[in-house]
């Protein structure tokens, strides 16, 4: 469908003009003919509307957004489809948006800015209470009516384009660099606190007249969000109350735990800072469901179909035929909203910079230089033979064989955090999922749950069968799964909500390692060169032959990846067909991890890290030399974290 012109009729509306353009499509001023009322009519971009998965979810997401009944949220009247085109009809607000206002007149008076921010905060609280994270709070999405009445628009839709259409749409992501939280840049789970960060950026923008981390390039802006201290608001706008500067600084904290617990608390603090009200006596967290921090989420019943948990290691399968772009700026080495890109693309409304395109995976950033697998960026001494790592929420959890407490490092700088939860002696493995960190130990076989927000142990440990040695743990597919090496081996499913054992499955070939994904648990045999697919719904077992001496297994990128330590290869098993192919890697491949559109293999004998492109199923450039005998690894965003037990170190490789 071509662009509509004034006077055109569309689905019972008469178009009167164009109101704006954004990442989802064009917004028209129109009149609903049946009621003779003005509306804002948004037509979804054709490339999105033609995607069946987007169309299916569009209706559900629109209903969620329409359910927010709040004076500072643009009401959605209805949605529909006409001649194959999807559209949304909303209240038309006569006035301007915040971006236009600030661009025309510069920074606002702090009191006026606080008044607008408090209204946006109230709208966000209303969304967060319904489990909706906006994810694109920016000046162009704040409309101003009479008397500076603020309306927040594009709830639950604009920033969900990537996830609704398979997270791999050509062209990258839809977002705005000037107002994006660090956890979104790293590709981590974003909850209500990401909106708090964006609101802090918005408050800074209103007073200073520019976004807080405005830089000369997109790369520098991303780096600043991740690493630079919040800029001084007073240095950009003379006469700013020091109390308001403190509000902005807290809202822009890198660690979500250090921000205001709710957008409303930020808004109330801003009003108090400019003398419009008394300081709030108590702060509160209002977010629920998907908007709540991971630990506060309601855990699905283990007998229900599992929704994707926070920090699940297996990404959703890519849309067929989609080519995912790759970010190759080695300095920043971060993904953009879980999709690696060469530069920010499709910046809705234009607040963050120009539109650029991506380069294919494995190509070079410079035409005259070879692609590199990655860069060893940091080595951190932890001691005690580290044999497990798991990254989540800005922290890297390190398990050490000679310590009954976990070590927590802050990413990406590697500084030690002040908490060290106790997990029991001889800890063997750890993972994240269902809003928890899960650790298994061997001295008295048990599963321990640690809160990802409280950093404390939750409840009593779950006693595990003592007929063998605990060797692995994986979270997902209706439970937390523990592998026990014995004769025979055993896998155990534990309910993440009740922390009770729900099922035990005997594995005659023993258990070397396990992973979850694709509706199944994948178990490496200890006494056979196989990985067995255990169907979670039916319990059916289906062995798949792999290479010699399988050592590690991971699920992601629509495949199962098994390291064959006896023949220096990795077996790639297609999740649907179970067709297997082998890929040569380094000497003595041990553990494998998937993330950032790549597969990484730790080679113990030659102390290297091999990167595999899952689309071409080939190695990317030369392996990265790392510490002695790399053992465990985890990928978050564009960073690989791995352990070297002989050296007592944890290392970070950027890619």
What features would you describe in this structure?
The protein is α+β, with helices and mostly antiparallel strands and 655 residues long. The protein folds into 4 domains: 83 residues, 2-Layer Sandwich (Phosphorylase Kinase, domain 1); 246 residues, Transferase(Phosphotransferase), domain 1, CATH 1.10.510; 113 residues, YVTN repeat-like/Quinoprotein amine dehydrogenase (Methylamine Dehydrogenase, Chain H), CATH 2.130.10.10; 125 residues, Methylamine Dehydrogenase, Chain H (7 Propeller). It has a 6-stranded antiparallel β-sheet with strand order 1-2-3-4-6-5. A hairpin with a 2-residue loop joins strand 29 and strand 30. Helix 4 packs antiparallel against helix 11 and helix 7 runs antiparallel to helix 10. The chain is globular. About 15% of the residues have low confidence.
Terminal residue distance = 41 Å
CATH architecture of the largest domain: Orthogonal Bundle
Average the pLDDT over all residues and give the rounded result: 82
**Number of continuous helical runs:** 11
Question: What is the number of independent domains?
Answer: 4
Assign the structural class, choosing from mainly alpha, mainly beta, alpha/beta, alpha+beta, or little secondary structure: alpha+beta
Radius of gyration: 25 Å
Report strand order across the widest sheet. Answer: 1-2-3-4-6-5
Catalogue the unreliable spans: 156-175, 296-370
Fold-level CATH name of the largest domain: Transferase(Phosphotransferase), domain 1
Q: What helical percentage do the residues reach?
A: 10-25%
């Amino acid at each position: 469908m071509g662009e509509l012109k004034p006077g055109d009729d569309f689905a019972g509306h008469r178009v009167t003009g164009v109101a704006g353009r954004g990442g989802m499509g064009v917004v028209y001023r129109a009149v609903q003919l049946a009621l003779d009322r003005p509306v804002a009519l948004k037509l979804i971009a054709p490339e999105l509307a033609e995607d069946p998965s987007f169309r299916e979810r569009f209706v559900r997401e629109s209903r969620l957004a329409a359910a927010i009944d709040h004076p500072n949220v643009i009401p959605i009247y209805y949605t529909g489809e006409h001649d194959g085109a999807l559209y949304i009809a909303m209240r038309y607000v006569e006035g301007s948006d915040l971006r236009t206002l600030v661009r025309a007149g510069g920074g606002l008076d702090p009191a006026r800015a606080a008044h607008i921010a408090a209204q946006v905060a109230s709208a966000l609280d209303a969304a967060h209470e319904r489990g909706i994270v906006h994810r694109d709070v920016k000046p162009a999405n704040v409309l101003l009516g009479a008397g500076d009445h603020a309306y927040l628009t594009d709830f639950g839709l604009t920033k969900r384009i990537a996830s609704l259409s398979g997270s791999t749409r050509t062209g990258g992501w839809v977002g705005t660099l000037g107002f994006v939280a660090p956890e979104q840049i790293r590709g981590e789970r974003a909850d209500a606190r990401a909106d708090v960060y964006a609101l802090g950026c918005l408050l800074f923008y209103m007073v200073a007249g520019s976004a807080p981390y405005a830089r000369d390039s997109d790369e520098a802006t991303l780096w600043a969000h991740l690493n630079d201290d919040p800029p001084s608001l007073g240095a950009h706008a003379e006469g700013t109350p020091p109390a308001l500067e403190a509000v902005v600084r807290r809202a822009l904290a890198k660690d979500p735990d250090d921000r205001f617990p709710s957008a409303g608390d930020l808004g109330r603090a801003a009003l108090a800072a400019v003398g419009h009200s008394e300081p709030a006596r108590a702060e509160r967290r209002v977010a629920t469901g998907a908007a709540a921090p991971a630990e506060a989420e309601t855990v699905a019943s283990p007998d229900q179909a599992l929704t994707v948990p926070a920090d699940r290691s297996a990404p959703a399968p890519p849309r067929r035929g989609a080519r995912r772009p790759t970010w190759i700026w080695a300095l920043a080495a971060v993904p953009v909203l879980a999709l690696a890109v060469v530069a920010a693309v499709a910046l809705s409304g234009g607040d963050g910079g120009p539109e650029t395109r991506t380069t294919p995976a494995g190509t070079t950033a410079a035409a005259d230089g070879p692609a590199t697998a990655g860069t060893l960026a940091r080595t951190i001494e932890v001691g005690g033979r580290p044999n497990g790592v798991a990254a989540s929420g800005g922290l890297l959890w390190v398990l050490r064989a000679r310590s009954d407490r976990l070590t927590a490092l802050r990413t990406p700088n590697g500084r030690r955090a002040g908490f060290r939860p106790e997990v029991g002696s001889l800890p063997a493995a750890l993972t994240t999922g269902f809003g928890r960190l899960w650790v298994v130990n061997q001295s008295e076989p048990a599963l321990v749950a640690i809160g990802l927000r409280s950093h404390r142990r939750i409840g009593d440990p779950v006693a595990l069968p003592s007929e063998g040695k605990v060797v692995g743990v994986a979270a997902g597919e209706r439970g937390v799964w523990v592998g026990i090496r014995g004769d025979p081996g055993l896998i155990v499913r534990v309910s993440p909500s009740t922390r009770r054992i729900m099922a035990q499955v005997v594995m005659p070939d023993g258990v070397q390692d396990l992973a979850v994904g694709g509706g199944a648990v994948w178990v490496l045999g200890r006494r056979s060169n196989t990985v067995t697919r255990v169907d979670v719904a039916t319990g059916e077992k289906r062995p798949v032959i792999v290479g010699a001496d399988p050592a590690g297994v991971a699920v992601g990128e629509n495949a199962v990846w098994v390291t064959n330590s006896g023949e220096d290869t990795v077996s790639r098993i297609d999740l649907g067909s179970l067709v297997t192919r082998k890929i040569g890697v380094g000497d003595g491949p041990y553990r494998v991890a998937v993330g950032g559109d790549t597969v990484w293999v730790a080679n113990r004998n030659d102390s290297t890290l091999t990167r595999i492109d899952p689309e071409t199923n080939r190695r990317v450039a030369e392996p990265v030399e790392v510490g002695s005998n790399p053992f465990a690894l985890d990928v978050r965003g564009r960073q690989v974290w791995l352990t070297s037990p002989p050296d007592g170190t944890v290392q970070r490789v950027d890619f």
